[in-house]
Write a structure and sequence with these properties.
The structure is a single chain. The chain has about 210 residues and is α+β, with helices and mostly antiparallel strands. About 15% of the residues lie in helices and about 40% in strands. It has four helices and eleven strands. The N terminus is likely disordered.
Length: about 210
Amino acid sequence: MGNTGSRSLLCAAAVVVGVVLSGCSSSSSGGGSTSGSGPSGSANPSSTFTPASGTAPTGVLFPVYTNKDAGYSFEYPGGWRIAEKGTEVRIARFGDAITAVIRPRPKAPFYKGYQKQLEAMLKQHDDKIISKIVQPASEIKVGKDKVTMAVIEQVRPTGPGADSPKDTLVVNRYLFWKDGKLLLLSMSSVKGVNNNDAWNLMANSFKWN
């Protein structure tokens, strides 16, 4: 997964996806709330298909993560490390990461208001939070729900040392809301790696349970 072609998580054919994810070694699920079952048709039953290492034991490339405390679920790349903290979760592997954070909010967010928040944060010049707005906030549909979505960049050190080199991360962020709960679903990759198809797949799999 050292370049754009090898690190892209989702391709048109399942065989290609298996090759793409072959660098991911298997790991523990990180929590009892992870479901090993994926959507129908996620695994390719063809005898010519060999599941990539790091997928679910059944060969499912995108199993379902469920957080029962917060009441949500979404698909994620099998074999990625899961770190849970209450209603929040971070799922990561090889510089790519997915985070889900719950915040109380009485009303659903409006994309124009979130865009103003992003612009205000950008003026604070904290590159770890936001260094650039790549795609302004807009409203999209996920199922029947209206969801706010934006793409930003962040600059993060690659290690704990003060002299550690820095990576520019491209973050696709989705804002889901229901019954006073706002969920920020962020999916990040190092700049130059195009995981948009995979991020869209996971965002469209999101459900309030």
